[in-house]
């Protein structure tokens, strides 16, 4: 019987609702566990783009994160339970003053087109991300939508400086995000105001490159043998796009897939009983029930929604405890977040706030993705909790790509 190991990646939940997903890992035999030539991964959701600057979804960053890299890498210290930021493409950096940071790149880093990484590539990449990336705009612009960077000064091929308009302490943390990934200067400038559409222009410094992509079916990656941080042991990776979780599990159990992503919590014990070992890790994914403040402008109504929902019950009963309740719109493992005050379940307080606000005389629509049955189940629980305090909710389910567009691009939602 094949040796099977299951890694459970536990994602952090939530401001109003909670959701966990899992990665189940099957290794063919203990003897050849590090010599697999081709790794097949069954994922629940197709990528929404091949352009890293337009990436927003989990699948986007899972796949493109093997192709592109940012200046810094985010890691998690399990002892301190804090995120750490490791210089990655950067060799060293210093903060000269409150608004001036000086960086030196590592030598001999090559892109997939065999050109060497230079500071000019970094400048063009950051400027593109700051200009067109949905996440990049959030990371590199202030609350008024103005860029926080005044200029990027290139001194030579490996040394550059970032001059800020005003002091910005979390600069390194923001530059670590994959939405600020580095690409060749000519590609960044070619696509300065439009999306990358050709696989030939999907060029990064990562350990793999995309060789084939059939929307809705699969994405194939090939190892980049000149990778600066050492050739990876696995030669190729194929992401199999399988939306139905039962079909993904079947692919895992029959050996068609080595990894199945997005396994519901209540399926874990079944897989464990079949020889899969479950390993849990803390992740940084945060799932929220976002509130459109333009459509729900009264802060007391929004506060009431937070008090009305028993988030701990969702974690325990729906997610089988494979998650934790978040206390803000950021994961508790980010600096300063853990100390923030949590909304404790109190329907009485929710009802009082709604009364003080003068009530809510309309039915709200809660959008949710069909990506996972758990998404829909949690939406139904939210609907039930809110109805108990007098807030009427209609649930609208959408295919995941359409859901992302409606929420993140069109901003057309109540919840």
Automatic annotation (TrEMBL):
GO terms for biological process: peptide transport. The chain crosses the membrane at residues 6-25. Keywords: Membrane, Transmembrane, Transmembrane helix. Residues 86-415 form the Solute-binding protein family domain. It holds the Pfam family SBP_bac_5. This is ABC transporter substrate-binding protein. It comes from Ignisphaera aggregans. One of its GO terms (molecular function) is peptide transmembrane transporter activity.
